[in-house]
Structure formats: structure tokens, C-alpha cells
């Protein structure tokens, strides 16, 4: 009988002890309430005490949560719509605020945070055109979004860890317009390159023509100079030969003229027999 009483007493002590303690895990945040009012929340992981029936404990997941937003349309500085797909990494920062503002509900917290992030996106995308959104470093946009949304999220007891843009798409009607604009821009660049090529071609052709004219002119000048020097040399040789023996020179010249004149058959010449051409026919001693 005594043993049963001891066992019951030990069991009751164990139950009372269990009702007086609670544990907080590494991945948890806890709030201790006293008669419905928050008494304490800054608990470290481990074993802690409470008063049975007076205190109650609520625990919340302290791990990083992911809010994967649905693709949303935002207006750019060009008044063009873009479709943005993004996600946010967050965790509970101030568990008291988190419980007070959103009642510790993860779903409600995501709804409130989603609106904050959309407002931040709307503000940043409204300052940039489509080209800047596509070409700008997304890290810079990420930093600005985190900086602008962190204070608002802190009012909900939430701490933003990261904001990422997964992709930026254009609506079909905007894509067609952008593609046409890009095509027109590429055609303009192609025309400019063709114009520059034609201009360079004309310059090269004109320079080649100029060099050709200059080369031909120089060659003609040199040829005329050589021809003149040759004629002068020939005249000098003829003059020297004529000066050495004028009669013999005249005789040889006449023989050459006879040879060229009578070399072709069927030729007919009508000349005065007393002309100088027949001088050496009439005078056999001439030219000795």
C-alpha cells in the first residue's frame, strides 16, 4: 500500500514538474503568456520554467521562410508593362511584434509582406525603362529593394533576408513592339555600316584613280624625256656623221632612200628626171 502511494506521489511530481518546464528548440522562438498577456519572449534554446495553469507557451518557426510570389505586372518609366516573377526569403525578427500584428500566422504574414515587396518593385521599376531593367545588374536592384522594404517588414516583426527576381518577361504585345524596335535599330546600324563602307570604297577608288593618273603622267613624262634624249642623241650622231663627210653622208642616205623606194614591186613614181633624187644616177663619180 505504501509503495503504491509512493509511486502515485512520484508520478504526480513528474507530471507537475513537466507542467512547470518547457523547451525551446534551435529552430524555434517562444512567447510566454501570463493570463493572456505577453510576459517574456527572449528565450534562448534550452529548458525553461513556467507556472502551470498561469503561464502558457506559444512557439513559432524561426527558420528562414520563402514567399514565392505570383508573377505580377509592373509599369516601367516608358509606361510599358513587364511581368516580374520573384521570391522573398524572410524570418521572424521580433516575435512579439510578429504575434501582435499578424497573430503569428505565416499565411497572413506572407500576404502583408507580399504587398510591401510589390510596392517596392513598383517604385523601382517605375524609375527605369525596359532596356535598363534587362541590362542593369540585378544585384543593385536587389540591394535597393531590401533596403526600402526592411523597415516596413520590421514593423511586422519580420526580417527580410533576401529578395530575388527570377525572371522579367514582357507581355506579348510589348514584346512584338520591342522586337520591331530592335529590328529597326539593327537595320539602321546596318545602313550606317553600309554607308561607311561605300564612303571608304569611294575614297579608295578615287585614291587609286588618282595614283593611276599620276603614275601614267610620270611614265609619259619619263618616256618623253627619254624620247627627247634619244632624238637629241640621234640628231647629234647624224650631225657628227654629216660633219665628218657630208658628201658620203648624202650618198648613203640616198642609197637608203633608193632601197626603201624600189623594194616594193608595182610602185610607180612620177618625178622630174633632173630632180635631186636622181642625183647619183646621173653622176657616177658623186659620193666618192
Please give the structural blueprint:
Layout: H1 2-20, E1 21-24, E2 28-34, E3 37-40, E4 46-49, E5 55-61, E6 65-68, E7 72-75, E8 81-92, H2 95-102, H3 106-125, H4 130-135, H5 138-154, E9 158-169, H6 172-244, H7 246-262, H8 279-282
Antiparallel strand pairs: 1-4, 2-3, 2-5, 6-8, 7-8, 8-9
Describe the structure.
- By secondary structure, the protein is an alpha+beta fold.
- It folds into 3 domains: 2-61, no CATH class; 65-170, Band 7 domain (Tetrahydropterin Synthase, Chain A, 2-Layer Sandwich), CATH 3.30.479.30; 245-282, no CATH class.
- The protein has 8 helices and 9 strands.
- The chain has helices at residues 2-20, 95-102, 106-125, 130-135, 138-154, 172-244, 246-262, 279-282, and strands spanning 21-24, 28-34, 37-40, 46-49, 55-61, 65-68, 72-75, 81-92, 158-169.
- The strands form 3 sheets. Strands 6, 7, 8 and 9 form a 4-stranded antiparallel β-sheet that branches. A 3-stranded antiparallel β-sheet has the order 3-2-5, with no helix packed on it. It has a two-stranded antiparallel ribbon with strand order 1-4.
- β2 and β3 (37-40) form a beta hairpin.
- α3 packs across α5 (138-154) and α6 (172-244) packs across α7.
- The longest helix is centred in the last third of the chain and has 73 residues, at 172-244.
- It is rod-shaped.
- The mean pLDDT is 81.
